[in-house]
Design brief:
Jelly Rolls, seven-stranded antiparallel sheet, 27 strands
């Protein structure tokens, strides 16, 4: 090994052929090979041509030190050479403890403590790795190999009062997303050991139709999945409740079925479709006016079902006539001859039946006294009962100053066995 140095001691005398050197040799290079001793504050000792060890509390004042092979500097005091300025003046750094400073292609450094910023510049896939086996299955690895890399992660510690640690994406652009992956079929787990809740502050997307699984407290799980071609929104009620399933047996309470279609038709009995005792008052116009509407659900009548209706009315004012009517699907199937101003109340009953078809009905004559013959023919209708249809009660006053009140009504469905 070759070491090129400048001497630490100079005298103002010409060279006499021995050390110390004179001023005329201060800038000369002196080559020392193998073991050698120089006039320094420390001493060189060489054990081979490619290895030399420098010992001492500090180095002298060389302007250049050219070393080959391995350079080892045991630190035995608190001052070692840390650099050489452009003017040849060495700089020294204060150290604590003892250890070796190693200059090698891939040095191994053990037990370092850094104070201040530490910046690693590398485009290697293993730019930074921590683990007992280095880059082989490390606990932590930082990959800087992406070309034109501009995104990253930032970990920020907070105060104990905030109880937070912030992990966020960084980028030279305006936005950056996170991608967190397990390996292979591994599971990504959140909050395995913590006892607090996991909060999502933004909309959450579950991709590729995989859905979500909700595990029972003792066993099993329930999966929530969207349709293959998904759309729409599912809004849950603001109540503590149990959802009704399509394939479960449930009891419905306080529910209104609008335009409902029953897959399994009712059979053999009398079913109340609607009933009310709430008074509905009508006055102020002589035009025929709907005072009650009852929906007959689709398909409930079948081909031979019957609908019965009963209604009770009261009258006041004494100024003119009053006339109630029943209609199904907009067609009148019962009307009463106008009552005179002397009639203070009336009770009406009527019915219609599907005539062995879902779109044909028969009923009594429009003006029909109960259980009496009638010179008029029976009434027919052609209403499609496979769709929901409205049964309505209307009222027509002869004088707008009179008042008629619908006191109650009942609508029943009668089905054959």
């Amino acid at each position: 090994m070759t070491v090129t140095i400048r001497h630490s001691t100079v005298v103002d005398v010409p060279d006499d052929g021995s050390s110390p050197v004179g001023t005329d040799e201060w800038n000369a290079s002196h080559t020392i090979s193998g073991g050698a001793t120089g006039q320094f504050l420390g001493a060189f000792t060489g054990s081979a041509a490619d290895f030399i060890t420098i010992t001492g509390s500090h180095l002298p004042n060389p302007s250049t030190t050219t070393l080959g092979g391995v350079f080892s500097l045991p630190v035995t005091s608190n001052s070692v050479l840390s650099g050489i300025g452009n003017d040849g003046t060495p700089t020294r750094a204060t150290t604590t403890g003892t250890g070796d400073v190693v200059r090698a292609t891939n040095p191994t450094i053990t037990g370092l403590t850094f104070s201040g910023a530490l910046v690693v510049t590398s485009n290697a896939s293993g730019a930074f790795a921590v683990g007992p086996n280095g880059l082989t299955n490390p606990v932590l690895q930082v990959d800087g190999s992406t070309a034109s890399q501009a995104t990253g992660a930032k970990l920020t510690g907070q105060t104990a009062a905030s109880a937070l640690v912030n992990l966020e994406a960084t980028s030279s652009g305006a936005t950056a997303s996170w991608a967190i992956d397990a390996k292979g079929a591994g599971t990504i787990n959140f909050g395995i050991n913590s006892t607090g809740t996991i909060s999502c502050w933004r909309a959450t997307n579950f991709m590729n139709g995989t859905g979500t699984n909700y595990f029972g407290s003792s066993s099993g799980f329930t999966s929530l999945n969207a349709a293959a071609t998904a759309s729409g929104a599912l809004t849950l009620p603001s109540a503590t409740d149990t959802l009704v399933g399509r394939a479960t047996t449930d009891t419905l309470t306080n529910k209104t079925l609008t335009s409902a279609t029953l897959a399994t038709k009712l059979t053999g009995g009398v079913f109340t479709i609607a009933q009310s005792g709430a008074a509905v008052s009508h006055t102020g116009t002589t035009s025929e006016t709907t005072i009650a509407t009852i929906a007959i659900p689709a398909n409930v009548m079948g081909s031979n079902g019957k609908v019965r209706i009963e209604a009770l009315f009261s009258y006041s004012g004494g100024l003119g006539t009053w006339r109630p009517r029943f209609k199904f699907g907009g067609t009148t199937f019962h009307e009463q001859a106008a009552f005179s101003s002397g009639g203070l109340s009336a009770r009406l009953d009527s019915q219609f039946t599907n005539a062995n078809a879902t779109n044909a009905q028969v009923a009594a004559a429009l003006i029909q006294a109960n259980f009496a013959s009638n010179a008029n023919a029976y009434t027919t209708m052609a209403i499609d009962t496979t769709s929901s249809q409205n049964l309505t009660i209307t009222m027509e006053l002869g004088n707008a100053g009179d008042t008629v009140v619908l006191r109650s009504y009942t609508v029943e469905l009668v089905l054959p066995p």
